[in-house]
Amino acid sequence: MTDEAVTGIENLSQETRTFSPPTEFVQDAVARPSLYEEAERDRLAFWRSRASLLSWETPFTETLDWSNPPFARWFADGTLNVAYNCVDRHVESGHGEQVALLAEYEDGSDATFTYADVKDEISRMANVLVDLGVRTGDRVAIYLPMIPEAVFAMLACARLGAPHSVVFGGFSADALRSRIEDAEARVVITADGQNRRGKQLPLKPAVDEALAGGADSVEKVLVVRRTGGDVEWTEGRDVWWHEARETASTEHAPVPVEAEHPLFILYTSGTTGKPKGIVHTTGGYLTQAAYTHRNVFDLKPRSDVYWCTADVGWITGHTYVVYGPMANRATQVIYEGTPDTPHQGRWWEIVEKHGVTLFYSSPTAIRTAMKWGEDIPAKHDLSSLRLLGSVGEAINPEAWMWYRRVIGGDRCPIVDTWWQTETGGIMISPLPGITATKPGSAQVPLPGIGADVVDESGTSVANGEGGYLVLDKPWPGMLRGIWGDPERFKETYWSRFEGLYFAGDGAKRDEDGDIWLLGRVDDVMNVSGHRLSTMEIESALVSHDWVAEAAVVGANDETTGQAPVAFVILRGGSEEEIATAGGEEKVPELLRAHVGKEIGPIAKPKRVLVVTELPKTRSGKIMRRLLRDVAENRQVGDTQTLADASVMDLIQQGMSGKS
Ligand code: WTA
């Protein structure tokens, strides 16, 4: 990859290419230009008619209650059930035999589930959960690999109105425990293990460990058998899914809940050490999930085969694997494994095998595929594809061009979609068949969404200028708060600019008024499209006995976008222990492993540098900007505000050649 591709985001001003929508798309597109006019004319009426695409048990009369901002209530007096909307109604309307899930397993085996099958599975699981004591309103933690049972578990919870908290299968036992404790989950759904790069990795032991150290709210653990083999078993607590399933009825009446009933909690990193439990509710979230999925991906339920490569452990997996596609009756691929198992063409082999038409992935995956080389996708017939999507971070214009040419055969429109765990669904994106796309820009707010770029004082910037991305109107899929912490919700998102939601991203508006995202402006880093907070990794490092102080920065990385780099000061008195462990050279490796254990492998710093001082301002704030310069091998910037300017020399001398 060229340097230009890596620094493409900073070179946006040079990007002038545009691609008009292909004629085939314009004629037959789901999204119509009139959507913009309709939303402009009467925003609430617009959302009201989007909500009417769902099936309501009790129709709502009020669209939005914004009398107590920032706490929004959408469609509040209506009732509905999400699982009914995602599954049952399709069966009732005669589409029970349509394939819902095309499951691909890592070892090359596969399975197919129709909507009727899914209805049976989630009804069975809902009945089992009821037997295990789950009632409407109880929280259920889900810790599963990317297998159909993960989708079933989420929908079974939704069927009962029991908010789920999905914890990514790559998170550690400690991370799982703190999330279970925060949500006070009653039941955990997990698997014995998961297949990862040809190996079978245990999963249930992490649940056992999490529960042994606390998480007292958990009464039962439902275990899916995936890898087979021996597992530790706690009688009276642990229940095999395949055994409970055998006697469970496929009859289950979905429980209608109020539109504002919480559908799920999903933890995400913020600027502090403690992850935030983002709360999403039922009616507004599903409305936005369904509307955005249908229009942004141009979904034709009869003919399309859709594939979103995200794991259900992240928001993209919630909204664009489970809720959006299934509310729209999509047929979709769900893949258990990694893109390079058993070979680097695995994804493209799956596209060919199932005739995937709509493909949604991330810049980091695209950059990785670029690195592996275009001869790999070239071995597969990708001509079924008709639209490509990207999410997770800004896509470098060169990666965008490669995606378009190599994967999309120069024919597929690309939708670069900006959104967040907090927004619930896509907010800024081109609409296929309407928007002329620009490589690297998410471009325009969707119809019904209000977004702006403002300066320090909250004033809209002129075209051609940069600032902060804000959302200036409430939207149906917006987070309703942080679980158990309403003050933190206000403080985090609504305090920086009066009356505006501050997303934490820098952005620029070009001469045409299109929006370009410029990355986080807070202490959150984006590693392979996953959010990690510098504070969270610092806390994990400092929790190690040897570490006195730690500073973590996100350094640019060719493949993962950013990578954590840690600077640590060792505690006096730990010399002996360190010597026994193999000396100071061993410290980086051991601390990396420690972070892996505390948070999960994705949070492991790429490099750990042992230093004797950290650069600080006179008020004691760590100057991460300077450390980033070091981590990115740049000339160190302005050191004037440092309390002791010689620190940087020390760090640079000390680290030359070390990592
Ligand atoms: C970043 C993922 C630029 C952004 C859905 C945001 C993006 C954070 C894009 C949210 C994009 C996501 N262009 N940046 N198309 N999509 N981001 O909560 O910094 O995991 O604030 O949600 O990812 O990450 P999250």
From TrEMBL:
Provide the reaction this enzyme catalyses: acetate + ATP + CoA = acetyl-CoA + AMP + diphosphate
Q: Which domain of life is it from?
A: Bacteria
Q: Where is the Acetyl-coenzyme A synthetase N-terminal domain?
A: 34-86
Under the heading SUPFAM superfamilies, the entry gives: Acetyl-CoA synthetase-like (SSF56801)
Q: Name one GO cellular component term.
A: cytosol
Tell me where in this chain the PTM N6-acetyllysine is found. Answer: K621
Residues in AMP-dependent synthetase/ligase domain copies: 94-483
Q: Please report the stretch or stretches of sequence annotated as the AMP-binding enzyme C-terminal domain.
A: 536-621
Residues that coordinate or bind Mg(2+): V542, H544, V547
User: What does this protein need as cofactor?
Assistant: Mg(2+)
- Any one Gene Ontology biological process term? acetyl-CoA biosynthetic process from acetate
**Known EC number:** 6.2.1.1
| PROSITE patterns tied to this protein | AMP_BINDING
GO MF, any single term: metal ion binding
Q: Which InterPro entries match?
A: Ac_CoA_lig, ACAS_N, AMP-bd_C, AMP-bd_C_sf, AMP-binding_CS, AMP-dep_synth/lig_dom, ANL_N_sf
Residues engaged in binding CoA: R196, R197, G198, K199, T316, S528
Q: Which HAMAP family match?
A: Ac_CoA_synth
The protein's role, per its UniProt record: Catalyzes the conversion of acetate into acetyl-CoA (AcCoA), an essential intermediate at the junction of anabolic and catabolic pathways. AcsA undergoes a two-step reaction. In the first half reaction, AcsA combines acetate with ATP to form acetyl-adenylate (AcAMP) intermediate. In the second half reaction, it can then transfer the acetyl group from AcAMP to the sulfhydryl group of CoA, forming the product AcCoA.
Q: Which PANTHER family match?
A: ACETYL-COENZYME A SYNTHETASE, ACETYL-COENZYME A SYNTHETASE 1
What family does the database annotate?
Belongs to the ATP-dependent AMP-binding enzyme family.
This protein is called what? Acetyl-coenzyme A synthetase
This protein's species is Brachybacterium paraconglomeratum
